[in-house]
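Anyone up for a design puzzle?
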C-alpha cells in the first residue's frame, strides 16, 4: 500500500523585502491598500497626503511611522519632501481624481486643470523622486479605462485619459533605468467612488455585479496586488495595465 504524497511547502522571500515604497495619496483607498500589500511583502512604506489626521490613522492601520503631510499639487512641497529622503525604490501616485464637468460650463483654468492635472503632478514627482530611486525601482501612475469612451457626461475626462499611456511611455524612456508604468482602472469601490456617486453607490455596485464578466466589483485590494507586481517585476516599463473586470467591453 502506497502512502499519499505529502504536500510540498513552498517558501518564498517577500517580493519587496528591504525596499522602500512611497505612496502619494496613501491615506485612503487604493494608496492605503497598496501600502498594506507592500508592507505584507516586506517593504518599508512612506505615506504622503494632505490631511495629517488621516495620515496618522492610516499609519497606525498599516504599521508605519513614516508619514508626510504634503499636497501633491504643491511643487515646492514635493521638492522639499523628496530632498529629505534617503534612497527609495518605488513611488506610486494615486492622488487626485477625475473632473466631471460639462465642456461648455468650464472656464479656461478648469480646462487646463482637467487636462494637465495628472501629467503635471506626475512630472513633478518624477523630477524629484528619480534621483533618489535605486536601480529597478518604478514610478506607478494611476489612470482609467472608463474615460476611453466618449460621453457627454464625461466632459474632458476622455481627453485627459487618452494622454496618459503615451505620456507614461515617453517618461519611461527619459527616466530609464527607473521604470514608469500606468495602471488604468475602471470603477474601484473606494471612498472616492462613494463621494462621487453619493446615493447611487449601491445601485452602481449591483449593476457591476450583474454585468461584469468577473461577477463582482473591483476593489482596492485588486489594484494593490497589481501595483506590487509592477514594482517587483523589473522587466516592466512604459506599459499600461488595465484592471476593470472587463468593464470597458460591456459599457
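Challenge accepted. My sequence:
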Amino acid at each position: 500500500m502506497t502512502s499519499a504524497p505529502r504536500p510540498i511547502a513552498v517558501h518564498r522571500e517577500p517580493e519587496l523585502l528591504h525596499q522602500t515604497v512611497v505612496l502619494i495619496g496613501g491615506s485612503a483607498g487604493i494608496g492605503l491598500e497598496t501600502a498594506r500589500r507592500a508592507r505584507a511583502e516586506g517593504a518599508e512604506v512612506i505615506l504622503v497626503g494632505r490631511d495629517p489626521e488621516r495620515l496618522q490613522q492610516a499609519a497606525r492601520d498599516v504599521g508605519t511611522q513614516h508619514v508626510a503631510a504634503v499636497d501633491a499639487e504643491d511643487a515646492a512641497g514635493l521638492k522639499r519632501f523628496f530632498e529629505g529622503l534617503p534612497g527609495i525604490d518605488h513611488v506610486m501616485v494615486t492622488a487626485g481624481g477625475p473632473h466631471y464637468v460639462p465642456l461648455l460650463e468650464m472656464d479656461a483654468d478648469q480646462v487646463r486643470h482637467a487636462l494637465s492635472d495628472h501629467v503635471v503632478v506626475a512630472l513633478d514627482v518624477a523630477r524629484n523622486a528619480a534621483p533618489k530611486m535605486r536601480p529597478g525601482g518604478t514610478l506607478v501612475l494611476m489612470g482609467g479605462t472608463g474615460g476611453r469612451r466618449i460621453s457627454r457626461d464625461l466632459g474632458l475626462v476622455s481627453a485627459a485619459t487618452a494622454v496618459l499611456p503615451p505620456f507614461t511611455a515617453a517618461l519611461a524612456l527619459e527616466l530609464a533605468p527607473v521604470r514608469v508604468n500606468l495602471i488604468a482602472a475602471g470603477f474601484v469601490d473606494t471612498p472616492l467612488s462613494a463621494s462621487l456617486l453619493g446615493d447611487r453607490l449601491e445601485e452602481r455596485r449591483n449593476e457591476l455585479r450583474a454585468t461584469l464578466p468577473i461577477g463582482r466589483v473591483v476593489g482596492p485590494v485588486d489594484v494593490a496586488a497589481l501595483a506590487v507586481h509592477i514594482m517587483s517585476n523589473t522587466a516592466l516599463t512604459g506599459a499600461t495595465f488595465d484592471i476593470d473586470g472587463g468593464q470597458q467591453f460591456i459599457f
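A detail worth pointing out: The chain has one domain: 20-250.
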